[in-house]
């Protein structure tokens, strides 16, 4: 360990911040996650997942044997994977959202550390973990947490590429985010992505918008969504 590294405050070290964020998420999202049965519209997300496992069809989701195409298949597929791993329970259904909320806090930590340093990273991550809206969606078998994770990845990747001159690795983060958000909730987050691109254009005087690292992941991500939609239609 270098002398400079040894003088870093404990709270500013990456491993300590990751541990602090994971502890906060464990308390907020994972503690007593399975208490009570599924309620409200949680069954609309869980039942298609259980029928995926019964039918083996991971594209055309059904509810009580009838096609249920109001939402893309991303969330039912995620629920089905969780059920395969942990069994059929309220905990396994809600674990998808709890994991998405936990990953959001870690994503906020990573990017905010790059942009604002250790203090900004920890503040951003804990703020994300403790945001009141996420307290509910991160503990429910619903679509919102997974869609928000995808939206965050796409937006942060675009910002890092467009403003911070990030690499193709950041563009890959954008691609992953677009795929997640479209398969979770379709084009619901498109207005936000348009706003992010407009903000990047204004900030950089429109110089970076022509970069393939900005356009390629967005186009490819929606192409994946389009391919899935076509496969379902056929």
Question: Your description of this structure?
Answer:
- The protein is mainly alpha-helical and 234 residues long.
- Helix content is 71%, strand content 2%.
- It has 10 helices and 2 strands, in the order αααββααααααα.
- Strands 1-2 form a two-stranded antiparallel ribbon.
- A hairpin with a 2-residue loop joins strand 1 and strand 2.
- Helix 3 crosses helix 4, helix 5 runs parallel beside helix 7 and helix 7 packs parallel to helix 9.
- The chain is flat, with a radius of gyration of 19 Å.
**For the residues shown, what is the average pLDDT?**
93
User: Which structural class is indicated by helix and strand composition?
Assistant: mainly alpha
Name the poorly predicted regions. none
Strand content: under 5%
Which word captures the global form?
A: flat
């Amino acid at each position: 360990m270098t002398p400079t590294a040894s003088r870093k405050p404990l709270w500013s070290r990456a491993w300590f911040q990751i541990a602090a964020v994971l502890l906060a998420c464990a308390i907020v999202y994972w503690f007593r996650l399975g208490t009570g049965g599924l309620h409200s519209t949680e069954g609309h997300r869980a039942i298609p997942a259980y029928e995926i496992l019964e039918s083996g069809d991971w594209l055309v989701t059904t509810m009580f044997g009838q096609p249920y195409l109001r939402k893309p298949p991303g969330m039912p597929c995620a629920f089905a994977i969780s059920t395969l791993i942990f069994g059929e329970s309220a905990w396994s259904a809600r674990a998808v959202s709890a994991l998405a909320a936990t990953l959001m806090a870690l994503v906020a930590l990573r990017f905010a550390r790059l942009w604002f340093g250790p203090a900004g990273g920890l503040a951003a991550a804990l703020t994300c973990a403790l945001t009141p809206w996420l307290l509910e969606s991160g503990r429910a078998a619903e679509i919102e947490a997974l869609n928000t994770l995808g939206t965050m990845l796409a937006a942060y990747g675009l910002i890092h590429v467009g403003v911070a001159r990030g690499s193709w690795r950041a563009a890959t983060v954008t691609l992953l985010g677009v795929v997640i958000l479209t398969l979770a909730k379709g084009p619901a987050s498109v207005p936000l992505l348009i706003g992010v691109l407009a903000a990047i254009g204004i900030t950089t005087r429109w110089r970076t918008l022509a970069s393939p690292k900005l356009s390629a992941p967005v186009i490819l991500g929606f192409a994946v969504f389009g391919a899935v939609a076509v496969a379902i239609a056929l």
